[in-house]
């Protein structure tokens, strides 16, 4: 099985170039100030200077004014939101962009059973409420929870994926798309072009 790939937390020209060259299907920019991958809108614009795959902008507890100000500076194609479904629908209507809602999963009961009027889901480990960030923690969950899920919308498997485990994760979950950040870094926020190539090769072979 092969899968489409999103490389998240792009914060350098070298990471962007490696993602484009290796055939990433999406690139993600983290607009969450407490993240080690945080970029400003100006930095994202300076990184994505040439054409590449669709750009995903990640926002936590999104504020419409913040998203609007980012969109004034840099083009985004998809919003990845850490928010409830009502807020996600409101942002979709307000900005006319596709919205993927991030869903923390600990058991099959956490998997969405309707499309919620949205365009897709990021399915990743459920973090404790006091976690410093709701994603990007290199935390894997039991991927077999998603196997056989009648997904109501497109979805990406995320959390704790690496070049070494991604093929097993695709097989175990049945996903058609994967999302990685920590697993292609040498330290939090330090993307490795070599690991980006390794990951995409492993997911698409
Ligand atoms: O990357 C972050 O710092 C981050 C902060 C706040 C919310 C989400 C965040 N990242 C999410 C992602 O990068 C991906 O969608 C995915 O969860 C990657 O997780 P991992 O490969 O385990 O770092």
From TrEMBL:
Residues 5-201 form the N-(5'phosphoribosyl) anthranilate isomerase (PRAI) domain. The keyword Ion transport does not apply. Its EC number is 5.3.1.24. It is an enzyme of class 5 (isomerase). One of its GO terms (molecular function) is isomerase activity. Coiled coil: none annotated. It catalyses: N-(5-phospho-beta-D-ribosyl)anthranilate = 1-(2-carboxyphenylamino)-1-deoxy-D-ribulose 5-phosphate. The keyword Acyltransferase does not apply. Keywords: Amino-acid biosynthesis, Aromatic amino acid biosynthesis, Isomerase, Tryptophan biosynthesis. InterPro entries: Aldolase_TIM, PRAI_dom, RibuloseP-bd_barrel, TrpF_fam. SUPFAM superfamilies: Ribulose-phoshate binding barrel (SSF51366). Pathway: Amino-acid biosynthesis; L-tryptophan biosynthesis; L-tryptophan from chorismate: step 3/5. CDD domains: PRAI. It holds the Pfam family PRAI. Belongs to the TrpF family. This is N-(5'-phosphoribosyl)anthranilate isomerase.
